[in-house]
Amino acid sequence: MSPRALPHPATDEITLEAVLHALADPVRLRITTMLAEGHEDMACIAFDLPVTKSTTTHHFRVLREAGVIAQHYQGTSKMSTLRRDDLDALFPGLLSSVLSAAARQAN
Fold first, then answer.
1. 14-106 is classed in which CATH architecture?
2. Which residues form the HTH arsR-type domain (predicted)?
């Protein structure tokens, strides 16, 4: 792994408990929703979140370590992508159900 590579769980290492824990937080759910709405490869600074920069970093790390998102560096920006294919393969319908429930709750 290069010095700028970020650790991610392999698909078979992603657990339901970790995913549910990551998605249970409103800020992390908001990040996931934004990525699901087609904002692929989005820089962390592009998210308008109601928390400090250090807290934002924590939320992205939890999502990455749970296997919900993948992150990579593009220049000096850390880019995030939703791991929808991996999550759908492991837990069919889970992500769609959670995102639908979040949308209903937001309205």
1. Orthogonal Bundle (1.10)
2. 8-102
